[in-house]
Amino acid sequence: MVKATPFLLVLFLALGAHGVKKCSLTGRWVNDLGSNMTIGEVNGNGDFDGSYHTAVTATNNKIKVSPLQGSMQKSPNQKGQPTFGFTVQWSFSDSITVFTGQCFVDTAGKEVLRTMWLLRSRVEDINNDWKATR
Question: Which end of the chain is more exposed for a tag (fewer CB within 10 A), N or C?
Fold first, then answer.
């Protein structure tokens, strides 16, 4: 029994080391509504850029691909499923959207982004400020 303990410990440590699957933001992402974005390489500081092509809009303007800039949390405590945020400057309207979220690897091994967003539209005066953020 004593000889089995070190083996079990080593096996446990080996399995534990591979327990957290890493999620990479870099690549092409598509959401449930058909919008898609491409995120370029994340640099050493956690900064990245890319493009976002939305499938939905509240304007009558023709939808265009829009640039995005963001940052991923880089810390010594990073466990492989990072938190991040990015801003999309819409090329076809007077609005901007910020997203924040986390990159996960689900039980099937698929990378998934879970995000929340705020969209700010331009309004003519401060009295209409209440309706400018969704």
Answer: N
